[in-house]
């Protein structure tokens, strides 16, 4: 039994999306403010949705299933 209860993180459910093929999608960072100094091509690329790296998947899946 664990020493302490994990705090439920509803933010994980809001920030990540699971596709039908069990891929986890996320939004890219650096798109909230200070956009005037970024060129338009960079901002355009930041708009796209990215896939979560395989290194981060085990913890993300655990947290996702825990608080779903």
From TrEMBL:
GO terms for biological process: translation. Gene3D superfamilies: 4.10.410.60. InterPro entries: Ribosomal_bL35 (IPR001706), Ribosomal_bL35-like (IPR021137), Ribosomal_bL35_CS (IPR018265), Ribosomal_bL35_sf (IPR037229). Keywords: Plastid, Ribonucleoprotein, Ribosomal protein. GO terms for molecular function: structural constituent of ribosome. It comes from the Eukaryota. PANTHER family: 54S RIBOSOMAL PROTEIN BL35M (PTHR33343), LARGE RIBOSOMAL SUBUNIT PROTEIN BL35M (PTHR33343:SF1). This is 50S ribosomal protein L35. Belongs to the bacterial ribosomal protein bL35 family. It holds the Pfam family Ribosomal_L35p. One of its GO terms (cellular component) is large ribosomal subunit. The keyword Ligase does not apply. It comes from Porolithon onkodes.
